[in-house]
Amino acid sequence: MISELKKTTEHKMQRSIEALKLDLAKVRTGRAHVGVLDHVMVEYYGNPVPINQVANVTLIDARTIGVQPWEKPMVGKVEKAIRDSDLGLNPAAQGEVIRVPMPPLTEERRKELIKVVKQEGEGAKVAIRNLRRDANASLKDALKAKTISEDEERRTEEEVQKLTDKSIVEIDKLLAQKEQELMQI
């Protein structure tokens, strides 16, 4: 039961960190990144679908994303979907290819993005701490039910705390890395 609890808690903490990595990848720096367009939805025969299901999304250069719809009539719809998204991008169609230049970030915008990154990190830390709390509550319940000894409970609580500390350090590293990435000009 104890090994299962530790394994489950560790797995959930890793999933929280992976979710943070995905969220941080969406915060754009000055460089182009195909993941920026992942949540843009395009109207396709009456249904909203992710852009990567109707077009090939590639990098043209360090500051330009290329989007090539698989069907010619979709060029206008894809261009409109990118323009209408909350990303503040201004795509330009050139034949069958849509060029999406990434505007350079201003100092003010960089600071705003750093605040967003810190909030994401704090949310991930709260999730990790909640997982620790849940694991400790399960241990207390097992102790009350007399399925584990006090020594086992204390030892496992310490191991869960080590997992928590390790996860928080990893989150801090990710945040510092993203902050440094955002401040590069």
From TrEMBL:
Tell me which Pfam families the record gives: RRF
Q: Pull one GO CC term from this UniProt entry.
A: cytosol
UniProt-listed InterPro entries: Ribosome_recyc_fac, Ribosome_recyc_fac_dom, RRF_sf
Q: State the family it belongs to.
A: Belongs to the RRF family.
The protein's name is Ribosome-recycling factor
Q: What is the lineage of its organism?
A: Bacteria, Pseudomonadati, Pseudomonadota, Betaproteobacteria, Rhodocyclales
**TM spans (from-to):** none
Q: Report the protein's function.
A: Responsible for the release of ribosomes from messenger RNA at the termination of protein biosynthesis. May increase the efficiency of translation by recycling ribosomes from one round of translation to another.
Query: Which one of the record's GO molecular function terms can you name?
Result: ribosomal large subunit binding
List the source organism. Zoogloea dura
Source domain of life: Bacteria
Extract the Gene3D superfamilies matched here.
3.30.1360.40, Ribosome-recycling factor (1.10.132.20)
The record's annotation in HAMAP family points to: RRF
Q: Which UniProt keywords apply?
A: Cytoplasm, Protein biosynthesis
Keyword Protein biosynthesis assigned to the entry: answer is yes
Instruction: State any GO BP term from the record.
Output: cytoplasmic translational termination
